[in-house]
């Protein structure tokens, strides 16, 4: 037995296995980061697991504390948004009144597709690229303010209706942090977000910054619609090399997830793929409704088969 173990050691020390070990270690770290966790089986196939090696690098080199909420004053450039919250509110409410803050009309919003079923709606200002043509036409003052702050990579108006809620989830990308500015809110503790179990309720004209790779969820248990400015702000990093690497990743992979408010806006390649993949997933959804056991057997057979092909 000992001889068999010794003979297998060279294979276990092959470079491809070191990649696997690093991936597993990163995934375990992400799972146990924070006080609130997904169930093990959900975390195993969650998108944050596949992004774990990248995200661990972001946490290691982060120039701001790795905690659920980060003090807004660590981002002085964002004060311009708070100072002009009433201008932002005016354009947001006009968009709302005219029906432009809405769910995606097609299956081409990979990042937020699951939110639409819970009543959440949005209007993109920009998403890791130049502002959308529709935003330039419909909310020019917001576009000007957002574009004047280089660290803001993505921005949108986001709506949560009365009775709306968002289930527990992690966002997959740690290269940015999330900024919320209350524009038209219930100003009530019944309309709030939890980040790693810590609650925050939105208030008109007030901002919050949090790390969206902690598990978070939201609820609006009031009779008033909540509208906020929602931004992705580039995470400050201690290393210039890592900052350049993160900026490259944002401008390629994350930019590919951009989508449209209306016809004429650019749709990224990942959302073109998602619009096809969604329909390919329909047989799987039908199988899950019929038999969860059969669904998970097939799912794990595919996952384990892919791992075998990669590391055989």
What would you say this structure looks like, in words?
This protein is of the alpha+beta class and about 300 residues long. The protein has two domains: about 70-270, B-lactam Antibiotic, Isopenicillin N Synthase, Chain (Jelly Rolls); about 280-310, no CATH class. About 45% of the residues lie in helices and about 20% in strands. It has 13 helices and ten strands. The chain has helices at about 1-10, 15-30, 40-45, 45-50, 50-60, 80-85, 85-95, 135-140, 140-145, 240-255, 270-280, 280-290, 290-310, and strands at about 70, 120-125, 150-160, 165-170, 175-185, 190-195, 200, 205-210, 215-220, 225-235. Strands 1-8-5-10-3-2 form a six-stranded antiparallel sheet. Strand 6 and strand 7 (about 200) form a beta hairpin. Helix 2 packs across helix 5 (about 50-60). The longest helix has 20 residues, at about 290-310. The two termini are about 20 Å apart. The mean pLDDT is about 90.
Q: What does this entry show, briefly?
A:
The protein has 312 residues and is of the alpha+beta class. It has 13 helices and ten strands. It folds into two domains: 69-268, B-lactam Antibiotic, Isopenicillin N Synthase, Chain (Jelly Rolls, Sandwich); 281-312, no CATH class.
Give a quick set of tags describing it.
312 residues; alpha+beta; Jelly Rolls; 2 domains; six-stranded antiparallel sheet; four-stranded antiparallel sheet; 13 helices; 10 strands; 44% helix; globular
